[in-house]
Design a protein that fits this description.
There is one protein chain. By secondary structure, the protein is an alpha/beta fold. The protein has 2 domains: 124 residues, 3-Layer(aba) Sandwich (Rossmann fold); 62 residues, no CATH class. The protein has 11 helices and 7 strands. Strand 6, helix 10 and strand 7 form a beta-alpha-beta unit. Helix 1 crosses helix 2 and helix 2 runs antiparallel to helix 3. The longest helix has 15 residues. The model has no long low-confidence stretch (mean pLDDT 97).
């Protein structure tokens, strides 16, 4: 079967960045492990529709760490450290020119989604649709996250490729019959698509 659609995870795949925890440790002396603990606590609470503002959860941590961030300056600091994986973006454009549908499937919260849509317009112009857990209510590895894409575009999972930096998410996509792999660079993805 020919591959008809490629579904991309966003962070760690189409977008690359140094971890927020590493940056805060380097720039402000906050322990990496403390930031990871905060992210682990906060992210599940803000990725769904009707979630409170992310800042409501971050503010106590920021204060506890003795940092002088406002809501705007904190998110600007965080998100400006993330950028397009240009090589993969260029390959996604190639795939689009070949007639393949291109999707984003991301567990993300409102403030980050809004920033990406404002600052990375070329990425959102390229994709057929971007699915964010904040909008859909489905957080990967919930199989319904992928099923929604398949259903909305009447896609056969056997003709879809999915790439993510999480092996758990890859396994969940595979359980639906999607050809899924951990992202290992453009060369590996190109081979995966050509081999299928």
């Amino acid at each position: 079967m020919t591959i008809n659609a490629v579904i991309f995870d966003l962070n760690g795949v189409l977008l690359k960045s140094e971890y927020l925890s590493s940056r805060l440790e380097r720039d402000y002396g906050v322990k990496d492990a403390d930031v990871v603990a905060a992210i682990t606590d906060i992210m599940p609470k803000i990725r769904l529709p009707e979630a409170p503002k992310a800042w409501d959860f971050w503010k106590p941590y920021i204060k506890n760490w003795g940092l002088d961030f406002t809501e705007e300056s904190f998110f600007a600091y965080w998100f400006s450290g993330e950028g397009l994986n240009q090589e993969l973006f260029d390959y996604a454009k190639e795939l689009k020119e070949q007639g393949k549908k291109i999707f984003i499937l991301s567990n993300n919260f409102k403030e980050r989604r809004d920033y990406y849509k404002k600052e990375l317009g070329e990425l959102f112009d390229l994709v057929d649709k971007a699915y964010f857990s904040r909008d859909t209510g489905f957080v990967k590895p919930d199989k319904q996250a992928w099923q929604l894409v398949l259903d909305e575009f009447s896609l056969n999972p056997k003709t879809c490729v999915y790439v993510d930096d999480s092996t758990t998410n890859v396994a969940s996509a595979q359980s639906l019959g999607i050809i899924a792999a951990k992202y290992q660079g453009v060369g590996a993805l190109r081979k995966l698509i050509l081999d299928n």
